[in-house]
Amino acid sequence: MEEAAAFDAASPAGAAVVRPPAMAALAMATGVVGGLGAIAFRLMIAWVHRAFTAAEGALGPRAPHALDALAPAVGLLLVYGISHRFAREVRGHGVPQILEAMALRGGRIRPRVGLFGIIAPAVTIGSGGSVGREGPIALIGGAFGSTLGQLMRLGDREIALLLACGSAAGIAATFNAPIAGGFFGLEVVLGTYAMGAMVPVFLAAVTGVAVFTAFEGSGAVLPVPPYAPATPLALLPALALGLMGAGVGLAYTRGLDGVERLFSRLPLPGWAIALFGGAAVGAVGLALPEVLGVGYPTMHAALVGDLPLVLLALLLVAKYVATLVTIGAGGSGGVFAPSLYLGAMLGGAFGQALAHLAPALAPVPQVYAVAGMATVFAAAAQAPFVAITILLEITGDYRLTPLVMAAAAASYFAYAMVTRDSMYTVRLNRRGIKILRGNDVRPIDAVAVEAAMEPLEPPVAWGTPVREAYRRLGAAPAGVLAVAPSPESGASALPYLVGVRELAPALAAGAWDAPVGRYAVRPPAAVRLDESLDEAMRRLALHGAGALPVVDGAGAVVGLVTPQGLARTYHALTLPALAPRAVRRGSDPGAFVATRVGERSPLAGHSLADAPLPPEALVVSIERDGIAFAPRGAATLRPGDRVLAFVSPASKAPEVRRLFEGERT
Q: What is the Cβ-side half-sphere exposure of residue 519, based on CA atoms within 13 angstroms?
């Protein structure tokens, strides 16, 4: 598995190397904090709730209903102040922030998120906001794991792994579900079941549960009576329930995205939106107070059959509205538990309706409430393993496994036929951050840096004049020169680098005879030869570097990687899927030609639309003045342009190269 190789590989150059025993110890330490964080989070929610209750009592017996309606508004207003002033990451439901950190920052989360990640959701939930505990506690545990990795100066993959460990520990402790917590860290956060990730993540989850139960006691979160095992005939209605759960999950995902966009477009300041949204949630709570807060007692009532059919349907709609408004108005809290709530109401209503229409298929209607919880989460989160294991662990009834699996599988596949965006990724995807899972692999994920690596010329001496270095830069393939360290600078595993950007101050000052070493910089990081183009691109952007050295397994520098080189390689790899069929003839794989437009080339000065290019050639990218772009027909070829062309059949490649370079064909 590629994922296994990724997580079992060595750390990037310059990062601390973590052996498996040490990683296990770090995972368990993260699990301890995840468990303690879950306990602290529960206590803080209780304190906030008591504070609002005390305020209600202070206002006298005539004001309880008014305060019930205003409490969520006050809570969201406080959360707005926290997120606006201290940590914007605490807004929303936690897991998207984790995935964004994984995708863009190598798993790095600011330490303050752990602190305010407890306060903001505790205020939201304690004041009656319709959200869950699990997203914030995943963010709290993940923030600690990320901070621990950063303090120890670990590599990106190790930091990301510790972030997943913290998230898994928090989820496991919150639900007292170590298996589901581990699967959450793997399936939702990392998107891999690689053995190198699985062991530490499950260690963290088990440790988190052990710490939590030592203080809070053990037992299922939503225990149910020992229902009789479902008959094989009951699996057919479970499949139908799965399809319905997929529909609710789709409405939930799109609703979360839509309401955030709607509130963001309102011509109101953030504090006014928080007040308005909180008041709307309070108004729903006045009619149906069961929708406020997390809602575990109401879910339990549905699982044991204490709620009538009409009330189940009303609670399904009301919880949907209350959750969407709470999140859209800037509340902080999870969307995991609300999805379970929606599923419980859906499944409970389905079971009772089925009992009236076909009693033989539903001798115990409540079992469909259990299955319904799995359907909505499996669909909306696109995480079937988590959905199945979480339901079995929080109810404590493993005899319902076939029914839950059938419903969750049907829901997962039905939802995936419509969209691959989950409730955790839909907002990120709207912002252009694509979270890929499973077999969704882009070329930049699957191809190693070696394909884009450019040669590194022998280093110039530290005292080489700027004049000479600037002259040699023009001929450097990567537009960067290596500079040998001076005796005073000491030995370094990575060479100093200098490019036009570094020489700009010297050129502006006319310091042509100054030593080039004065302007050379030590690279902030390196890229391994076997790492993906995606990782190299992310690291270049993270450090704002124009080039980074590429090292082999022994740590020796073997080349450079630049944004321009990545762009050329990316275009080359994506072309076969985009090129016209006329170019991709027969079974010939074709060939890529990377060259320069010569002064005597018959193509120089012509646009691509008018250039006498043979029909076998297609220009993929042009690099000019250090900038690579995908050309169109109006693009004019100029002498000195670096060109990447696809040629089919491959036998025509030498002829096309000579044409670009201006040699006689």
A: 27
Burial class (CB in 10 A: 0-12, 13-18, 19+), 104: middle
pLDDT number for residue 15: 47
Q: Higher-confidence residue: 10 or 556?
A: 556
Query: Facing residues of 594 across strands?
Result: 644
Q: What is the CATH number of the domain that holds 644?
A: 3.30.70.1450
* Residue pLDDT, tens place only, 67-98: 667 888 888 888 888 877 776 666 766 677 77
Which CATH number is 183's domain given?
A: 1.10.3080.10
Q: Is residue 569 part of a domain?
A: no
Which one-letter amino acid corresponds to residue 104?
A: L
Domain extent for 523: 445-548
What is the average pLDDT across 272-288?
A: 89
Q: Alpha-carbon distance 2 to 149, whole Å?
A: 23
- Whole-angstrom CA distances from 410 to 25, 222, 552 are 39, 24, 46
Tokens of 583: 């170019």
Q: Does 9 share its domain with 124?
A: yes
Q: Which two tokens stand for residue 163?
A: 């972030």
Rounded to an integer, what distance in angstroms lies between the CA atom of residue 234 and that of residue 362? 7
Closest CA relative to residue 390, chosen from 205, 242, 122:
205
Domain count, the chain: 4
Please indicate, yes or no, whether residues 270 and 394 belong to a single structural domain of this protein.
yes
pLDDT-derived band at 103, boundaries 50, 70, 90: low
Pair (9, 145) in one structural domain: yes
Residue 562, burial from CB neighbour count under 10 angstroms (0-12, 13-18, 19+): buried
Domain assignment present for residue 223? The answer is no
SS3 annotation, 224-291: CCCCCCCCHHHHHHHHHHHHHHHHHHHHHHHHHHHHHHHHHCCCCCHHHHHHHHHHHHHHHHHHCHHH
Tokens of 53: 């209750």
Phi and psi at residue 593, to the nearest 5°: -115, 120
If we measure between CA atoms, which residue out of 83, 408, 410 comes closest to residue 243?
410
In the chain, the largest separation of any two C-alpha atoms, in whole Å, equals 97
Which amino acid, 286? L
pTM attached to this predicted model = 0.66
| Residues 39 and 140 sit within 8 Å (Cβ to Cβ) | no
For the four alpha carbons of 523, 524, 526 and 532, in that order, the dihedral sign comes to: negative
Contact 616, 649 (CB under 8 A): yes
DSSP states of 54-80: HHHHHT-TT-HHHHHHHHHHHHHHHHH
The mean pLDDT of 511-530, rounded to a whole number, is: 84
| 438 located within any domain | no
Phi, psi of 332 (to 5 degrees): -120, 120
CA-to-CA distance for 137 and 583, rounded, in angstroms? 53
CA atoms within 13 A on the CB side of 450: 7
CA distances from 526 to 12, 153, 449 (A): 7, 14, 11
**Is residue 106 a contact partner of residue 524, using CB atoms and an 8 Å limit?**
no
3 state SS of 153: coil
- Could you tell me if 408 and 384 are in contact, meaning their C-beta atoms sit under 8 angstroms apart? yes
- Compute the distance between CA of residue 245 and CA of residue 266 in angstroms, rounded to an integer: 31
Nearest to 311 by CA among 320, 323, 300, 302: 302
